Amino acid sequence: MKLEYVDNSLKDIKADLELIVVVDKNLEHRFCAKYKDILEEMGFGAEQDEVIFLPESKKVFVGSQSLKSKDIRPAVATAIRAISSKKYTSVKMATYMSHQKCTATVRALVEAINLGKYNYTRYKTEAKESKLKRVILSSEEYNAKDVDKDAIKRAITKGIETSLAVNLTRDIVNTPPDDFYPKKMARLAKDIAKSENLEYNILTKTEIKAENMGALLAVARASSHAPRVIHLSYKPKNPKAVVSIIGKGLTYDSGGLSLKPSDFMVTMKSDKSGGAAVLGIMQAVSRLNLDVEVHGFIGAVENMIGGNAYKPDDVLTAKNGTTIEVRNTDAEGRLVLADMLCYAQEKVDANYIIDMATLTGACVVGLGNYTIGVMGNNDKIIDKMLYAGNVASSEMAAKLPFNNYLRKTLKSSIADICNISNTRYGGAVTAGLFLDKFIKEENKQKWLHLDIAGPAFVEHEWGENPHGASGAGVRMVTRFIEKLSDSKHEDN
Ligand code: BES
Ligand code: ZN
Ligand code: ZN
Known about the structure:
This protein is of the alpha/beta class. The protein contains 15 helices and 19 strands.
């Protein structure tokens, strides 16, 4: 699909449809006043994400609570999704800037178009291909004059690259486990590295053994698919900071011998979402030419059962020598991440260490399906991440605080730490505290843990997200890195 920005007023642009965003519930704004009577007659209330077509007038309207990006993104994405399922081949719209200096809405609009257009059809034999091929943004403004067109163009580029990265992550997560196992993940990482000019290093099982990653290897043992450790790096000339991102890449999580019940196993192809997000972010930071050195690490592993499976009661030795009593083989993500965190800290001296994982069901219970759990030891960077999510990119995120009482619940009588807590409460936090055990003292303040178990894969449409994979964390973390890159950060 082509997205164009043209220096023409709306009436001079040819298209099958015009998309009009309605903020004013009285329907009196100049963009919709002419249609007030008919819209009212048809019962259009301009509610958030409410879409209505007026085919005779070649118009489609969508309600949005405000022109803020958090509202306009889901509204426009929902409208584009509705348009995509019909016969229209082209749509035009204004850029809806709420203020002449504020390009945030433009970026959100562009993201919304690509995010709303996304549809995973790879496994449909008769995929209904969307006819929508062109979206034309007009320079005609909603209520701002004398806008900076170059700033708008920059916002458009950023919007395109972030949304393409999100869609790349969605494709990876949606791919069924038989077609996407660790080796495939490594192959794709290599392809991305080559096309984006990134350095790459991929460890095979033998090389992983040489690294003493006993915890990761134990999780991988019963699978017929050997694990891979993936490391991509983006190294600009004079970086303002160095960031390591570590993704949980469980290409399938059956639970292992602590087998998941059938209903809970379905959707566990999404347990690679953290790793998939890392790949999306690597593509985005490289295409946006950010002035930050970014290292992406992925532990790509499949958690299966079998005669040689690792067992509850086993004691594993992680790369840093820490011994771990296994009491539940379904708490495997933290085992893989333990070794990956050790590896990442050994390889790169980073200013920020961010792990991303579909780590706990408890995080979904606590925050619901739509919110990322943010944990760490440094409130300042936690707040920066929450801002990058809740404010800058409209990915919802909330802090889950650590405490030493919960830390104690991970004690083991026979090893240094246990892979599950002895209490059933606070499971997202205790998982985070387990990871903390593998963060070196000098890095404690640099580390953030993002539990994306809720939003990474949701079995219904929500806002700008389709049924299935959402690409959770890609927008938020990309924004976090953008901010490090740009001292005079444009808040779009
Ligand atoms: N991958 C799951 C967590 C998960 C659950 C992600 C639901 C997405 C949706 C993880 O490996 C897991 O199974 N965690 C266990 C931990 C428990 C055994 C301490 C859980 O959350 O039940
Ligand atoms: Zn699990
Ligand atoms: Zn898992």
